[in-house]
Design brief:
Helix content: 25-40%
Strand content: 35-45%
Order of helices and strands: EEHEEEEH
Radius of gyration: 15 Å
Shape: globular
Largest sheet: 6 strands, mixed
Structural class: alpha+beta
Strand order of the largest sheet: 2-1-6-5-4-3
Length: about 120
């Protein structure tokens, strides 16, 4: 059995739009880290409160949290050289970004993650 060798965590915070003259988008608010602590925290939290399934995209099941305005997903992948990666995604939405597509955000994140693990 091979241990998890790579951890990837994505967080997107859809911003509150404060100044229409200077629009901001979710693309300005993508956070990425490789913290094992954050990944384990998310896995533990989501295991106990899994929310409800809203859609699936490219093999990623996306769930909406029951207790907050957030969407999440996670997956593991086998890598070249017998390594394993785990990835977590969390997307925070707000009332001012109702036109933002969670599917569009997930597609972007999945593509970015695919590029990262292709280089491993």
């Amino acid at each position: 059995m091979t241990a998890i060798s790579h951890v990837y965590n994505y967080t997107v915070r859809c911003p509150h739009i404060k100044d229409p003259a200077h629009p901001t988008t979710w693309q300005n608010h993508v956070e990425f880290n490789q913290s094992c602590e954050i990944g384990l925290n998310r896995l533990t939290k989501w295991h106990g409160r899994s929310g409800h399934r809203v859609f699936e995209i490219d093999g990623f099941v996306v769930r909406e949290a029951d207790t907050e305005s957030a969407y999440f997903s996670m997956q593991t992948n086998r890598l070249k050289g017998d390594g394993h990666a785990i990835v977590t995604f969390k997307i925070f939405m707000d009332d001012d970004t109702k036109d933002t597509s969670v599917e569009e955000i997930m597609q972007y994140l999945i593509e970015d993650y695919g590029k990262k693990i292709a280089d491993v």
